[in-house]
Amino acid sequence: MEETLTAETKKCVNCGAPVGAGRKDRQYCSDLCKTEYNNNKQAAKRRKEKNTQEVSVPDFVSGINAILLNNRRILDECLGEGEKCTLKKRDVDGRGFRFKFFTSCDSTTTGVEYYFCYDLGYKIVEEERLVIVRRPREATY
Ligand SMILES: [Zn+2]
Q: pTM for this structure?
Protein backbone atom coordinates (compact mmCIF):
# COMPACT_ATOMS: atom_id res chain seq x y z
CA MET A 1 0.00 0.00 0.00
CA GLU A 2 3.08 2.20 -0.07
CA GLU A 3 2.28 3.53 -3.50
CA THR A 4 -1.06 4.97 -2.39
CA LEU A 5 0.63 6.80 0.49
CA THR A 6 3.12 8.41 -1.88
CA ALA A 7 0.34 9.55 -4.19
CA GLU A 8 -1.64 11.07 -1.33
CA THR A 9 1.21 13.09 0.13
CA LYS A 10 2.71 14.30 -3.14
CA LYS A 11 1.81 17.92 -3.96
CA CYS A 12 1.47 19.73 -7.27
CA VAL A 13 4.61 21.85 -7.81
CA ASN A 14 2.46 24.66 -9.17
CA CYS A 15 -0.50 25.02 -6.82
CA GLY A 16 0.33 22.70 -3.94
CA ALA A 17 -2.80 20.59 -4.28
CA PRO A 18 -2.42 16.80 -3.94
CA VAL A 19 -1.60 15.32 -7.33
CA GLY A 20 -3.83 12.32 -6.63
CA ALA A 21 -3.29 8.76 -7.63
CA GLY A 22 -1.27 7.97 -10.70
CA ARG A 23 2.33 7.58 -11.74
CA LYS A 24 4.89 8.11 -8.98
CA ASP A 25 6.72 10.82 -10.93
CA ARG A 26 3.61 12.91 -11.44
CA GLN A 27 4.37 16.55 -10.52
CA TYR A 28 1.17 18.41 -11.38
CA CYS A 29 -2.46 18.08 -10.40
CA SER A 30 -3.59 18.97 -13.93
CA ASP A 31 -2.36 19.83 -17.41
CA LEU A 32 -3.32 23.42 -16.74
CA CYS A 33 -0.95 23.55 -13.76
CA LYS A 34 1.79 21.96 -15.82
CA THR A 35 1.43 24.63 -18.52
CA GLU A 36 1.21 27.46 -16.00
CA TYR A 37 4.26 26.24 -14.09
CA ASN A 38 6.37 25.96 -17.22
CA ASN A 39 5.24 29.36 -18.48
CA ASN A 40 6.20 30.99 -15.17
CA LYS A 41 9.55 29.24 -15.23
CA GLN A 42 10.25 30.53 -18.75
CA ALA A 43 9.22 34.07 -17.80
CA ALA A 44 11.51 34.00 -14.74
CA LYS A 45 14.37 32.78 -16.91
CA ARG A 46 13.82 35.59 -19.42
CA ARG A 47 13.69 38.17 -16.61
CA LYS A 48 16.93 36.82 -15.18
CA GLU A 49 18.65 36.97 -18.59
CA LYS A 50 17.45 40.54 -19.08
CA ASN A 51 18.84 41.59 -15.65
CA THR A 52 22.16 39.98 -16.41
CA GLN A 53 22.41 41.95 -19.64
CA GLU A 54 21.62 45.21 -17.84
CA VAL A 55 24.47 44.87 -15.35
CA SER A 56 27.04 43.55 -17.80
CA VAL A 57 29.33 46.10 -19.46
CA PRO A 58 31.08 46.00 -22.84
CA ASP A 59 34.51 44.36 -22.94
CA PHE A 60 36.36 47.62 -23.54
CA VAL A 61 34.81 49.12 -20.38
CA SER A 62 35.95 46.09 -18.37
CA GLY A 63 39.39 46.53 -19.93
CA ILE A 64 39.60 50.15 -18.80
CA ASN A 65 38.43 49.20 -15.31
CA ALA A 66 41.19 46.59 -15.15
CA ILE A 67 43.80 49.19 -16.20
CA LEU A 68 42.55 51.66 -13.56
CA LEU A 69 42.64 49.02 -10.84
CA ASN A 70 46.11 47.97 -11.94
CA ASN A 71 47.25 51.61 -11.87
CA ARG A 72 45.86 51.96 -8.36
CA ARG A 73 47.58 48.75 -7.27
CA ILE A 74 50.94 50.02 -8.58
CA LEU A 75 50.54 53.36 -6.76
CA ASP A 76 49.50 51.49 -3.62
CA GLU A 77 52.57 49.23 -3.79
CA CYS A 78 54.90 52.22 -4.31
CA LEU A 79 53.34 54.15 -1.47
CA GLY A 80 53.22 51.28 1.00
CA GLU A 81 52.26 52.45 4.48
CA GLY A 82 53.37 56.02 3.84
CA GLU A 83 51.30 59.06 2.92
CA LYS A 84 53.65 60.39 0.27
CA CYS A 85 56.59 59.11 -1.78
CA THR A 86 58.76 60.21 -4.68
CA LEU A 87 60.15 57.93 -7.36
CA LYS A 88 61.30 57.92 -10.96
CA LYS A 89 58.67 57.94 -13.65
CA ARG A 90 60.36 55.11 -15.51
CA ASP A 91 60.18 52.88 -12.42
CA VAL A 92 56.41 53.24 -12.43
CA ASP A 93 56.40 52.75 -16.23
CA GLY A 94 58.36 49.54 -15.76
CA ARG A 95 55.62 48.14 -13.54
CA GLY A 96 53.06 48.57 -16.32
CA PHE A 97 51.51 51.85 -15.18
CA ARG A 98 49.34 53.44 -17.89
CA PHE A 99 49.55 57.23 -17.56
CA LYS A 100 46.70 57.80 -19.97
CA PHE A 101 44.15 56.33 -17.55
CA PHE A 102 42.98 58.00 -14.34
CA THR A 103 39.70 58.59 -12.54
CA SER A 104 40.04 62.29 -11.74
CA CYS A 105 42.37 65.26 -12.01
CA ASP A 106 42.82 67.97 -9.36
CA SER A 107 44.80 71.21 -9.58
CA THR A 108 46.24 72.85 -6.51
CA THR A 109 46.02 76.62 -5.98
CA THR A 110 49.55 76.87 -7.36
CA GLY A 111 48.49 75.17 -10.58
CA VAL A 112 50.07 71.79 -9.94
CA GLU A 113 48.02 68.97 -11.40
CA TYR A 114 47.43 65.72 -9.56
CA TYR A 115 46.09 62.70 -11.41
CA PHE A 116 44.15 60.21 -9.31
CA CYS A 117 43.31 56.56 -9.68
CA TYR A 118 40.58 56.40 -7.05
CA ASP A 119 42.13 57.52 -3.73
CA LEU A 120 45.77 57.43 -4.89
CA GLY A 121 47.26 60.12 -7.08
CA TYR A 122 50.50 61.55 -8.37
CA LYS A 123 52.02 64.71 -9.77
CA ILE A 124 54.97 64.92 -12.13
CA VAL A 125 57.90 66.90 -10.74
CA GLU A 126 61.33 67.83 -12.10
CA GLU A 127 63.75 65.21 -13.42
CA GLU A 128 60.95 62.91 -14.56
CA ARG A 129 59.89 62.06 -11.06
CA LEU A 130 56.53 61.31 -9.56
CA VAL A 131 55.20 62.28 -6.18
CA ILE A 132 52.54 59.82 -5.09
CA VAL A 133 49.93 60.86 -2.54
CA ARG A 134 46.93 59.38 -0.79
CA ARG A 135 43.77 61.37 -0.19
CA PRO A 136 40.62 60.68 1.80
CA ARG A 137 38.04 58.82 -0.22
CA GLU A 138 35.65 61.24 -1.85
CA ALA A 139 32.92 58.89 -2.88
CA THR A 140 30.59 57.41 -0.31
CA TYR A 141 28.36 54.47 -0.96
ZN1 LIG B 1 -1.90 22.19 -9.50
A: 0.58
Residue 39 Cα, ligand 1 centroid: separation in angstroms?
14
* Contact status, residue 17 vs residue 29, Cβ threshold 8 Å: yes
Rounded to whole angstroms, how far apart are CA atoms 22 and 6?
A: 10
Cα pseudo-dihedral 107, 109, 110, 115, rounded to 10: -20
Per-residue pLDDT reduced to its tens digit, 17-42: 988 877 678 899 999 999 999 999 99
Cα of 43 from ligand 1 centre, angstroms: 18
Ligand 1 centroid to 12 CA: how many Å?
5
Question: Phi and psi dihedrals of 127, rounded to 5?
Answer: 60, 35
Which strand (E) or helix (H) includes residue 68? helix 59-79
